[in-house]
Each structure stands twice: as C-alpha cells, then as structure tokens.
Fold:
Amino acid sequence: MTGQVHIDSQTKRLSRVPLKASHAPHILRALDAVAAKRTYRRGEEVCNSTCISDCLYRVTSGAAKRCATFPKGRQQIVDLLLPDDIFACAPNAHHSFSIEGAATETVLTCYSRRRVETLAESDSRIAKLLSEIAFEAVCRLEAQLLILGRTTALEKIGAFLVELSDRQSGRSNSVVLPVSRYDIADYLALSVETVSRSLTGLKERGLISSIGTRSIKIIDRDALDDVTSC
Amino acid sequence: MTGQVHIDSQTKRLSRVPLKASHAPHILRALDAVAAKRTYRRGEEVCNSTCISDCLYRVTSGAAKRCATFPKGRQQIVDLLLPDDIFACAPNAHHSFSIEGAATETVLTCYSRRRVETLAESDSRIAKLLSEIAFEAVCRLEAQLLILGRTTALEKIGAFLVELSDRQSGRSNSVVLPVSRYDIADYLALSVETVSRSLTGLKERGLISSIGTRSIKIIDRDALDDVTSC
DNA sequence: CGAGACCTTGATGTCAGTCAACTAGTGTGG
DNA sequence: CCACACTAGTTGACTGACATCAAGGTCTCG
Structure:
C-alpha cells in the first residue's frame, strides 16, 4: 500500500519512510483546473461538522488542524493535516469537529466532492483513490493514537518530533513546527507549559537544538528514538 | 453517512446513536457462503502486520483487539473490534500491529480480500462499501483518540463505558465488558490498578453498579456524562 | 509605543504509576 | 480429592510527573 518498511542495515532499527508514496495527490492535482484555492489564516475556520461540506481538500502549503471541542472548553486536535494530505469534513454523530488553519498561512485546494464521487462510480481508479485517502487517514490516526498512548510528556514530544520529521522531509534532520505550542499541546493532550518544558528538556540533553522557535534540528536521532520508545 | 445525530428533546444533550446504521455488514453477509468462520480464544493471534493477510474479517461474536507493541514491551490497543465491525490487517510502515482475540470466545468471518477488491472494480456499490469500512475505522479511531485525550482516569473510564454502551446495545443501560481489565488498561493507556480503582470510584459515587466483574449497569447516565466531559 | 499573542520558567498540589499484598476463580496433575 | 500454579481483580502506601497558577520575556502588528 502506501509507505514501506525499510530495515536500516546499520542500526537494525525500523526506519521511517514518508507515507507520501501515495499517488492520490497526483491524481487529484489533475483536477486542479476545476478546483478552487484559498488561503486561510491561523485559527480561521475551514468548515465544521454541522455544515456538511461538499468539498474535498488538499493541503497545498501550511497546515490545518481538525479539532474537537469538549463541552467544558478544552480542545483536542484529532488530525494534523500537512502538505499533500487530503481530507474532507465528514459529519460525526458523537462529536462536533471543526477544521481550522493552523499555520500562519495555509493554502487549501478544494475539489468538488460530488464530482469526485460521481467520477468514482464510473472510474474504479478514482474509487480506489477514495479508499486510499481513507486509508491514509487511518494511518495518521493510528500514529497519533500511539503518540497519545505514551506515558510521559518527553515520550510524547519526542514521538511527535519524529513523526513530524518523517512526514515532512523524510530524511532531513531539521523539523519545521508549522503550528504553535498551544496547538502541539492540544495535539498531545498536554499543557502548553509541559510542551515548553519538554522541549527545553530535550535541548538540555543535547538531543535537539532550536533555530528560532519554529524550527528544530534533531541532533541525536538514536537517542531521541530511545526516549520515544517506552 | 453512517450514524446520525439526534437531539434528545428532554435533556438537550447530544445522544449517542450506534454507528451500525451502515449496511456494510449486510452486504458482506451475502458473501457468507464463500466465507470461512473460525473461533479464536483470548489472546490467540488472528494475524499480524508482518504477514500481509489476504483476508477481510467481520466480527461475528466476541471481540478482537488490534494492538501495537512498543519496543520496551508495553502494549497499546489501537482498535477494539466488536460484533459487526469489519477490519483487515493492513501493513503499517511505522509500527508492527497484531490482531488477537480479546473475548474468551471470538468468532470471526473471513472473506477473501482479493475477491472483494475484484468485485469492487466492477461493482461501484462494493467499492463504496470498502470506503465505508474505512470510514467506520476512522470513526472508531477518532472516538478512541478523544477518549485517550482526556486528562483524568475517571474521565477515560467513563467515556469508555459510554462508548461501549453506544456501540453495543444503543439504548440499554447495561454494558458487557467483553475484555479483561488488562485490555481496558491497554486500551486507555492506564495501569490495571487505576482501571480497577476508577471503576470502584464510579460505583461508590453511585453512577454505575456491577453485575459480576464483566457486566456493568449504568445507573446515572447524566452524571456519567458530566464526569466524562472535561 | 502599546496591545496582544506566543513562549518560557518557577512553585505547588494532585493524580496516576509502581510496588506489594491479598482474594477469588480455574485448571492441572499426582 | 487435594495441592499447586496461574490468571484476574482489588486495595493500600508511596513517589514522581504533570496541571495549575503566577510571573516575566519575546515578538509582531497597529
């Protein structure tokens, strides 16, 4: 399917390979002529689950977040959408979700969902594409679930950085944080303070270094993997 | 799609409706003639992500768990499969999953995945069914994510019971725990002791009562929802 | 310059993990 | 039949980690 497992012969460790082996974005891009592009600012709402959107979105640049709001106000980010991720705003019986821009500038390409679904009925490749989109969503959610399942904040932050690094550039050691610490906190179910403290903790241990507040360099990836694995 | 939102006029609260509005199990059941049934015992492995299975499973009775094992031994249950849930064992680049029987007796119906996928290419209803299966998986994962995202153990346990109640009988107030406390702990990323303590805590508050160890009655659902919502 | 969002650090209380002990049920084999 | 081992569940004592509250710092934008 999408993404493959490679065994790094040196470290005998499962190395992460970006999941972008999918050709779904490529196929969708063929429809860009009839698609609409829009730029969203941080916090600007793309859509929410009360209004059933007739759109399929592809992140072109920046980042979007799908978040659920608990009755007492706390937010939980359920999915972090990065460039080339495709998503729709499905209604959900149990919770109300909203999708917002998360980076300072987020560009989304919007495809007519009905059109794509109609195409899917005659073209099995499009149908397969829809399955693949869902499959990738499952993969992202599983990955986040495993991050949330970790016990300590350091493990969560470490795993988050590793995941982000994999999803972004694949092999490079520099990670760009597209979202604020507050969003990271909502993503990891931590408080902002703990996020901040954990990052400085990783710096003090010499595992990462920061270039500004929004860019991080992974110095000792093996040690980071050790911290991460619980 | 699957599942609908009803507003309970009395309580003005979003009431949960089972997601089983899906007709996917129904369609698949039409294939039961060419499907294989098997019974699994607790802990028995159905398949794991190293061997790519050519099967699509439907839970007929009992319960199955999809779990990931962290390097240092801890287990995280990533998906809890209850009767009429459909799942496959997809390979995952990042983690190794295994699917095991979780109830004492779990019956799975196994369909040929290749056959279903071939059917999907000619029959758009089958293709849609595959999308729907994925969509339901996304719903389950999102629900679990929101449970894991809660802060206190009481909230997690409460939300877990509510979710289980919804997925099982819909409206009845009795919840059958198909899995052990240990599995609940792995599902909620808690320790067994905390699971036990939280359950007795809910009992002491008079929100639930237990009939044996594996069956629970929800006494005060509103109060349980209050505990749950953070 | 001031306002506001974003980030960091410190002090403190609470909650959950860990270790340990105990009970109950279940199955096995002599 | 009983002794034994094993699994499942519960409860208690203790410690460590995270949330919370509070304060101060940095940056951007009007």
